[in-house]
Specification:
The structure is a homotetramer of 187-residue chains. Helices cover 71% and strands 0% of the residues of chain A. In chain A, 25% of the residues are buried. Chain A has eleven helices and no strands. Chains A and B meet through α9, α10 and α11 of A and α7, α9, α10 and α11 of B. Chain D binds a DNA duplex (21 and 21 nucleotides) through α2 and α3. Chains A, B, C, D: InterPro entries: DNA-bd_HTH_TetR-type_CS, Homeodomain-like_sf, HTH-type_TetR-like_transc_reg, HTH_TetR, TetR-like_HI_0893_C. Chains A, B, C, D: Keywords: DNA-binding. Chains A, B, C, D: This is TetR family transcriptional regulator.
DNA sequence: TATGAATGAGGTTTCATTCAT
DNA sequence: CATGAATGAAACCTCATTCAT
């Protein structure tokens, strides 16, 4: 069967995600990947120069998808807390809806060049938010990266660690977390 | 030369840490490890059943070292905030003093069975602290794990991300972070 | 664009020659060849059954070109020595004028079935010359192949080795070689 | 079974020679080689960094063996012609006694870096001979390399081509060749 | 206890060839 | 005729592990 160029690359990306969730990054072999993606081993090399480049592009795609999810339904006319809350829930729901991504989160951090990729991509969403909220005097004057660690990052770490938790995470608890992390970064 | 059992195992652990910092976990081969540790390839198998078990024990050791560092100079007669502050700085300084550990932080999360190891080890220090602080009505009633994510975990994530930051992290900024994360978890 | 059958085959042959000179026979892949010849990979298989056959026909073409060059301006009315001298210079100049062929000389000998090809092609030129010269009592009675090795072959080996020589090869030296190899095969 | 270091390297060299004779250089795979040498694939890489280096060392070894054979029983007190004759026969007999080498001769010329290897090795034997014979006024004043092409090289080319010859090469014919090539290079 | 040569399964990548368009 | 995406066998090479010493 013939595929459009994006079709097959996407097919390979999705297979990568599934395999990473199933067996982990360091058990990801090109042969297994080919099998999972229902293509021949050589075919992958028509779309990616080598394994390293495949993983790098995979990371870029992830990051883009993630950033898009964060911005979803964001309304700048709402209060800054509401906007923060929206982003926090966006991340949370996105990770709940994409369990493979959730279980891959640790692995993603190991992808080659992830740091460079993150920097090269536009952080516009969060940076934008921080700039506006600081200008309005609602956010403390700390570097944006740190504000991210204290704020939205908790949505990731808690989602990531939740499968090991004994207690169930109720909406009440999460709303409490949102409110308290907001307290940590507000002026 | 003769070695006591612990000697050689420790030698191998240290070599593991150096190699992970230098080339990353997924380039860590038993041969390179043997060379770095100045032992023969076969010798490693006298101390560890296989690579997986070596890495698991390596993770256990890491965790123990880390937990010991967190507890250092902890004085229960101080105020809860002071105790929290002490632990936060303990983590921060420990990571500054152990740059290989810092640059390995991401890698550690990929070690096989890390999650199980963490759970199996006694979290006594933090759990203890939480229990006492909650009893004293100073800490909000949330699961201890979540409190950890909102609190001390920030010392790790910020230290880990600091090499990518443009701004320099002054003591003032860090004290601000401590104070604000405390605000997030206090009653 | 449309091509006559010979056009495209010749285009492929020329691309083969260029690539062999540039990267060597054992780095010659059908894809690179297609690219160099500005045709699609599959197109080559319309003209040649497979790689082996392409190389074999390539060798035949080479041999034919070479033989034609040897015979050039050959005048049977001249003395046998003059005819020999003419052929020797023909070979020499041909190799100087076709540097890719010169740098491919070693490679050619590796082409599949070269030996069979050489035998199957008509040696008429040299055999002819030998026969006539022997009849005239000017050439020693040795097998023609051996006479070739002692005589004209030196034009090839010296041209081939000349790039490694420290000394420059003057016309004087070459004339001396011609005269002396003639001495080796004359009666 | 255990081997001394040279044992196994030599075993691999000999297997290389056999396989080259049987299937040609460009069909020589490391797996087939391992099988032919009765070792595991990985074992070869304990002795040679990679295929290229294996072939280069193989070429060096060949060249050394060949040079040693040429010098055999060479007696400087004999006449120059006798010495020349001795070397010619040395080459001839050596190639008859080592049929794989003979059938590999073409292949050898394709070995990577052969040119560099030849230059880096001492040509002392032939250069020596030429120098002495020129000083004695017995050899024509031409570059030594050219004298080699006109002289001893014929032993190689004729041996190499002899399997394609229809006529049998008698001692008489070969002696004639020796005498005539000597004629070509003598003063 | 310690060694390190040897193994061979499995890794990534290349490439001659096919076939639907 | 001509294309070039797709194939998958086979290439080179690595590496966790064993075992005779």
């Amino acid at each position: 069967m013939r595929h459009s160029k994006t079709d097959l690359a996407e097919q390979i990306f999705m297979a990568t995600d599934r395999l990473m969730a199933k067996e982990g990054l360091h058990h990801l072999s090109m042969h297994k990947l080919a099998k999972e993606a229902n293509v021949a081993a050589g075919t992958i090399y028509l779309y990616f120069k080598n394994k390293e480049e495949l993983l790098e592009q995979f990371a870029r795609r992830l990051f883009a998808i993630f950033m898009a999810a964060v911005e979803k339904d964001l309304d700048e006319s709402h209060s800054f807390f509401e906007q923060y809350r929206q982003m926090w829930w966006n991340i949370w729901r996105f990770l709940q809806d994409n369990p493979t991504m959730l279980s891959n989160l640790n692995q993603y951090e190991l992808l080659p060049n992830l740091a460079e990729i993150c920097k090269s991509v536009d952080h516009s969403c969060w940076d934008n938010f921080c700039q506006r909220a600081k200008a309005a005097g609602e956010l403390v004057e700390l570097p944006n990266d740190i504000l991210f660690q204290l704020g939205l990052k908790t949505a990731i770490t808690i989602a990531s660690g939740s499968k090991f938790l004994k207690v169930e995470l109720t909406t009440e608890i999460l709303e409490s977390v949102i409110e308290r992390t907001w307290r940590a970064i507000q002026k």
